[in-house]
Amino acid sequence: MVRPAERAISEYLGVPAAELFPVRYPERKPRSLSKENEALIASQKAARDADKALAA
Fold it and tell me: I need a surface site. Which of 10, 22, 23, 42 has the fewest CB within 10 A?
């Protein structure tokens, strides 16, 4: 959500608030679609399956 002061400045300058204040509005990537996340999920599932086998 853009703060009122930031919105006023960005509208006056004609520049998006995310461009003026990049630290406050970082670019976000979809986590569920990234290749790195797929590998992490696969390793977590493998560890969980191993834990289940040990507990049984």
Answer: 23
pLDDT digit string (tens) for 1-55? 789 999 999 999 999 999 999 888 887 766 666 677 777 888 888 888 878 787 8
Tell the burial category of 10 from Cβ atoms under 10 Å away from its Cβ (0-12, 13-18, 19+).
middle
Tokens 């797929």 -> residue: 38
- Supply the pLDDT for residue 51: 80
